Amino acid sequence: MKSSFILRVAVAIILIMHSVPGMFNNGINDFGNLYLNQIGFAPFGLALAWSIKLSHLVTAILLLIDKYVKPAAIITILILIVGIFMVHLPDGWYVVGGGRNGVEFNFLLIAVLIAIMYPNGISIKK
After folding, report:
1. Where are the beta strands (DSSP E) in the chain?
2. b/e 50-60 (16+ beta carbons within 10 angstroms → b)
3. Burial class (CB within 10 angstroms; exposed 0-12, middle 13-18, buried 19+) of 97
4. What is the residue extent of each domain of the chain?
5. Which of 15, 44, 78, 126 is the most exposed place for a label (fewest CB within 10 A)?
6. Are 59 and 75 within 8 A, CB to CB?
7. Percent of the chain at pLDDT above 90?
8. What is the pLDDT of residues 11-67, one digit of tens each?
9. How many CA atoms lie within 13 A of 118 on its CB side?
10. What is the pLDDT of residues 87-109, one digit of tens each?
11. How far apart are CA 48 and CA 98, in angstroms?
């Protein structure tokens, strides 16, 4: 079993829980129409919101089957970075406790995805 198995399953669960409920409770539609379209992405906000959430679902599946992990992780990392600047940064660092809706969870997910992509670490050869 690969050393990244537990992390891949954990991130897959997080991505599934961050995407699937919104597909059924109007969350993705609200994110697209009431947020993305309102901040300048109209008329593409809804399509963009669905693309983001579907990419989370695809990434979760790829993490679980351990296929195309690097490209999926890179796309997800890019989405998380954009999310930090567009959504979370104005609320500061903390998700709970010292604040609300901050960047710390995205930061952790990015670090975990990098650890999954490079299970033996990143070496800089001279």
Report:
1. none
2. bebbebbbbbb
3. exposed
4. 5-117
5. 126
6. yes
7. 86
8. 999 999 999 999 999 999 999 999 999 999 999 999 999 999 999 999 999 999 999
9. 8
10. 999 999 999 888 899 999 999 99
11. 31
- Write the CA distances from 83 to 65, 77, 126, integer angstroms: 26, 10, 34
Distance of CA 27 to the CA centre of its chain: 16
State the pLDDT at residue 54.
98
Round to whole Å and give the CA distance between 46 and 82.
17
Is a pLDDT exceeding 70 seen at residue 1? no
Integer Cα distance of 123 and 101 in angstroms: 33
Report the C-alpha gap between 77 and 71 in whole angstroms: 10
pTM over 0.85: yes
Q: b or e along 32-43 (b: 16 or more beta carbons within 10 Å of the residue's beta carbon)? A: beeebbeeeeee
Helical ranges in 2-125 per DSSP H: 5-24, 27-30, 45-65, 69-83, 104-117
* CA pair distance 54, 36, nearest whole angstrom: 16
